[in-house]
Amino acid sequence: MTTFGKWDNAALMRHNARVAGKAEPAADVPRATTEARLHDEIIVECKRRGWYYVHARMDRPTTTALGVPDFIVAAKGGRTFWIEAKAARTKIRPEQIGAIHWLGTLGHVSKIVHSLQEFIDAIDS
Q: Using the 8-state DSSP alphabet, how is residue 66 labeled?
């Protein structure tokens, strides 16, 4: 039997993804047609609200830990959001599900969104 203490970060994220299950949007929520467009819409919304954000590049492999969400958003009032943006035909990797789940268990707002409306719902809840 393996204990959590002996797991590396990747093993823990794979485990978290497995127990969290798949994160799918509600059937009646429209999905963005491209991930790049959804990222652009989220950036525009963050700027409109005057929020600071960190955005992962889409044109190169990550240089951060596997699974780190696409956006870290610092909002007014000391609120921080961790957002993974996925479009209609893009798949969520196990490391991404694991990271979102892990952040949630630590008490952070962490969501996978498939549209600008899901992003707004996540940050306004």
A: T
Summarised one tens digit per residue, pLDDT across range 85-122 is 998 778 888 999 999 999 999 999 999 999 999 999 99
Q: Distance between CA 111 and CA 104 in Å, rounded?
A: 8
Task: Write down the pTM of the prediction.
Answer: 0.71
Give the right CATH number for 30-124 from 3.30.70.1490, 3.30.420.10, 3.40.1350.10, 2.60.40.10.
3.40.1350.10
All residues at 6 or more sequence positions from 85 whose CB lies less than 8 Å from its CB, including other chains: 32, 35, 38, 39, 42, 70, 71, 112, 113, 114, 119
